[in-house]
Write a structure and sequence with these properties.
- By secondary structure, the chain is mainly beta.
- The protein folds into two domains: 48 residues, SH3 type barrels; 196 residues, Fumarylacetoacetase-like, C-terminal domain (Fumarylacetoacetate hydrolase, domain 2, Alpha-Beta Complex), CATH 3.90.850.10.
- 12% of the residues lie in helices and 41% in strands.
- The protein is built from five helices and 19 strands.
- Strands 1, 2, 3, 4, 5, 6, 7, 8, 11, 12, 14 and 17 form a twelve-stranded mixed sheet that branches. A five-stranded mixed sheet has the order 9-19-18-15-16, with no helix packed on it. A two-stranded antiparallel sheet has the order 10-13.
- The protein starts with a strand and ends with a strand.
- The mean pLDDT is 96.
Length: 253
Amino acid sequence: MRIARFWLNDEARFGVVDGPELRVLNGHPLVSGLEYTGDRVAMKEVKLLAPTVPSKVVCIGKNYAAHAAEIGEEVPDEPLIFLKPSTSIVGPGDSIVLPWQSEHVDLECELTIVIGKITKNIEPEDVDAHIWGYTIANDVTARDLQFEDGQWARSKGFDTFCPLGPWIETEFEVEGATLESRINGEVIQHADTTDMVFNVRDIVSHVSKNMTLLPGDIILTGSPAGITPIKNGDIIECEIEGIGTLLNPVQSQ
């Protein structure tokens, strides 16, 4: 099932994707369940929003060995946690705005876990019951600032640096799913989830033992190799097999 969040009649609503239409839900599905209003809207007639509004954006760094190597880093011994501010989130079709502070901004296509209930100190075998579903994120990074600062908060935290969407897929099969990013139609990244150093269950368990995860929170699981600079006017597509495609244009500040 694909659950989308969208703008309708001057308010944010949730709905279930049904072909070219959305079946409108009554309230938040994590609170009200799948309670349908009976209304349907054509997807082309509404603005899709980021599918969740998390209390925090948790990210896992260097989770693909080839990506760690391309930025000159070693693979960590345990999942490497960092955070992006929730203000970095934008939805499908929204612009990635290049900040004047950076001269080198890269894309990073990432499988993203969406948490479904309060998650604290759980073991890997208990993780599945805590996952609402999966979506796609682009962990946009000002690479020059990342190395200049020596830590990652500024380089990954600018407004618009976390495009998210297009919806939450609740029945996604993680194992062997293909990730691909494209700039203006040209393939930039291509990998699959079997290349991850730490799997989804290990990641969620590890994060939960370091901070409490709340319903709607997201965890970006890391970028494959192939990070590439983006520029004004580019069209960025991040696609994950079994979920869909997240598309965002790029513009200068």
